[in-house]
């Protein structure tokens, strides 16, 4: 099996604290997005994954972007359980993301395509007290 080289950049300029998500949910979110990003890179000539953590007013923004071979026309379908663009995959990743998102009123996640990349934005707002 051939190992593929993926250019990865990671930026996190400031530590963040008082994170307002359960750590397990946070790790699950990151794992799903990073797994999807690296797998999508296996299909492109110049694989690239970028991860950026930003903090502002105690809110945390995470942006994960990766090269993609094509833009998926019916992306909404990929958020349903059992739907996948990958061969031999269960297709539960993004539906799990949607389930986690429903648990928190301060968690906002959106996805899209921009300049040949798939971009996921995760925002965790500080809860109002």
Describe this structure in words.
Keywords: Kinase, Transferase. It contains 2 helices and 5 strands, in the order βαββαββ. It is α+β, with helices and mostly antiparallel strands. A 5-stranded mixed sheet has the order 1-2-3-5-4, with helices on one face. Helix 1 packs antiparallel against helix 2 (93-102).
* CATH architecture designation: 2-Layer Sandwich
The poorly predicted ranges are: none
Mean pLDDT across residues: 81
* SS field, number of helical segments: 2
Strand content: 25-35%
The assigned structural class equals alpha+beta
- Tell me roughly what share of residues is in helical segments: 10-25%
Largest sheet: 5 strands, mixed
The CATH class: Alpha Beta
The dominant shape is: globular
CATH topology description: Heat Shock Protein 90
Through-space gap between termini: 53 Å
- Counted up, domains total 1
